[in-house]
Amino acid sequence: MGLDAAAAPAARRRWFKRSSVDEALAGYLFLMPALVSLVVFLLGPILFSFYISFFHFSYLDPQNASWAGLDNYLHLFVDPVFLQALWNTFLYTVGVVPVQTALSLGLALIVDRIRGKTFFRIAYYLPTVTSTVAVSVMFIFIFNPTGLLNQLLALFHIQGPNWLNDPTFALPAVMMIAIWSTAGQFMIIYLAGLQEIPDEIYEAAAIEGASGWKMLRYITIPLLRRTTFLVIVMGMIGTFQVFDTVYVISRGDGGPAGATMTVVLDIFNKAFRDMSMGYASAMAFFLFVIILLLTLLQQWILGREE
C-alpha cells in the first residue's frame, strides 16, 4: 500500500509530462501550414532575391547567370533612370506624408467631436478600401484638360494645366490622389489614439482655464506622439513603395518625361520588361535599406520616451 502511494505522484508527473509533449506537438502541427507558407512564399523568395542580386540573372535564361558581385549595387549610383526615380520618390514622400498626416489628424479631431461618427468613419475610409486602379482611372478623368478639376478652376477664371501630361504637374497630381485615398485610413488610427486619452485630463485643463488651442498643443498632440509615429512610418513606407497608381496614370512608363517614375515602378520595369532580375533585386534591397534607415530615424525623433 505504501509503495503504491509513493508511486502515484511519479506516475502523475510522467502523465503530465507526456500530455505536455503531446500538446506541444499538436500545436506545432497546427502551425505547420502557416510556417510552410511563410517559408515558401515569403522567406524563401526574399533569400533567393538577395542571392540573385549578386548575379546578372534573367528568368528567360537562368542557366547562363553570371557572377556580378557588387556591380549591380554600384550601378545604381550611375543609372540615370534609377536616380530620377529615387528623386521622384523622395519628392513624392515629402509632399504626401506631412499633408496626409496633418489632414488625417484634423479630420480625426473634427469627427471625434461631432455626432454620427460611424457614418463619417465609413465615408472617409471608403477610398482606402476602393480599388487603386478604379481610383486612378477616376482621377484620370478628373485631371483631364476638360475634366472636373479644370472646370472648377475655370469658375474662378483660372486656366488649368494639362495635369497628367505636363512634367511639372504630373507628380503633384499623383500626390493629390495619394492624399485623398489614404487620409481616411490614418484618420481611423488617430481616432483610436484619441479614444485612449482620458477625459479627466481635459477636464482638469479646463478647470485651470486652458483654451481649446492650448489643450490641442499641450495635451492632445503630445499624447498622440506614438500614434503620430505610427502614422508617419506607415505613410513613409507606403509612399516609398508606390506603384499601382503611377503605373495606371503613366501606363507603366513613368511619363511624362520620367516625371512619375518611382523606384518600385523602375524595379518592375527592370525585372519584367528588361528581364534584368538580378539588377532589379539589387534595387529592391537598396530600397529596403533606405526605408529601414528612415524608419529608424523616425523612431529616434518621434519614438523616444520623454
Give a written overview of the molecule:
The protein has 306 residues and is mostly helical. The chain has two domains: 51 residues; 226 residues, MetI-like fold, CATH 1.10.3720. It contains 13 helices and two strands, in the order H-E-E-H-H-H-H-H-H-H-H-H-H-H-H. A two-stranded antiparallel sheet has the order 1-2. The longest helix is centred in the first third of the chain and has 51 residues. It is globular, with a radius of gyration of 27 Å. 24% of the residues are buried. The model has no long low-confidence stretch (mean pLDDT 87).
Provide tags for this entry:
306 residues; mainly alpha; MetI-like fold; two-stranded antiparallel ribbon; transport; membrane
Summarize the structure.
By secondary structure, the protein is mainly alpha-helical. The protein is built from 13 helices and 2 strands; from the N terminus they run αββαααααααααααα. The chain folds into 2 domains: 2-52; 77-302, MetI-like (MetI-like fold, Orthogonal Bundle).
